[in-house]
């Protein structure tokens, strides 16, 4: 059973019970977002990652969002989610009215050999691409927004295509070998288990 979302009003921000139409529209319109996770250890390293590539995140329902996790960099988020599940996602407006939306909750990486993987990926349509490692599903415990008055105006120009071009030249078998050969895929910088290896083939 999903626990109820906490609702608090105060200051210049608000919290919400669900990702309603307005919040959903804002989330899906942004060209990027950020993920924040941390290990349980007080000596561990907090991780903050930017996520781009339009269409690679979507709102599943009023309490859940999901995004595609691609290889090519470290697997800190996966490692932290496997250890403790805590995650915060943040979207902020770089144009238009100022706004910041956060989804605080628990996340689960759904890997290639999970029966849910294919159906989740299919929901992203053309955003699916080479080097896909997992789908991260986040269930909200707290949904909040705030003013974002200090976020600067930035102009969106275009998507970077380097990741898709680089990994598009590799077969899925070559990508699996790439993951196996990079220690930062197997473990976090704190030594926590990250991406389960060997990487299963995509069906």
Strand-helix topology:
Elements: E1 9-10, E2 13-16, H1 21-29, E3 33-37, E4 47-51, E5 57-59, E6 64-70, H2 76-83, E7 86-92, E8 100-111, H3 117-122, E9 132-146, H4 162-168, H5 172-180, H6 183-186
Antiparallel strand pairs: 1-2, 2-9, 3-4, 3-7, 5-6, 6-9, 7-8, 8-9
Number of domains: 1
As a whole number of angstroms, the C-alpha radius of gyration is 17 Å
Distance between the termini: 31 Å
The CATH class assignment is Mainly Beta
The number of helices is 6
Major sheet summary line: 9 strands, antiparallel
CATH topology: Pnp Oxidase, Chain A
Helix and strand pattern: EEHEEEEHEEHEHHH
Strand content: 25-35%
How many E-type strands?
Answer: 9
Q: Architecture, CATH level 2?
A: Roll
Assigned CATH superfamily: Electron Transport, Fmn-binding Protein, Chain A
How does the overall form come out from the CA principal axes? globular
Mean pLDDT score, rounded? Answer: 92
Low-confidence stretches: 6-11
> From the helix content, strand content and strand pairing, which structural class follows?
alpha+beta
What is the helix content?
A: 10-25%
Task: Provide structural commentary.
With 203 residues, this protein is of the alpha+beta class. It has one domain (14-149, 158-181): Electron Transport, Fmn-binding Protein, Chain A (Pnp Oxidase, Chain A, Roll). It is built from six helices and nine strands. The protein has helices spanning 21-29, 76-83, 117-122, 162-168, 172-180, 183-186; strands at 9-10, 13-16, 33-37, 47-51, 57-59, 64-70, 86-92, 100-111, 132-146. Strands 1, 2, 3, 4, 5, 6, 7, 8 and 9 form a nine-stranded antiparallel beta sheet that branches. The longest helix has 9 residues, at 21-29. Mean pLDDT is 92; it is low at 6-11. Residues 21-146 form the Pyridoxamine 5'-phosphate oxidase N-terminal domain. InterPro entries: Pyridox_Oxase_N, Split_barrel_FMN-bd. This is Pyridoxamine 5'-phosphate oxidase.
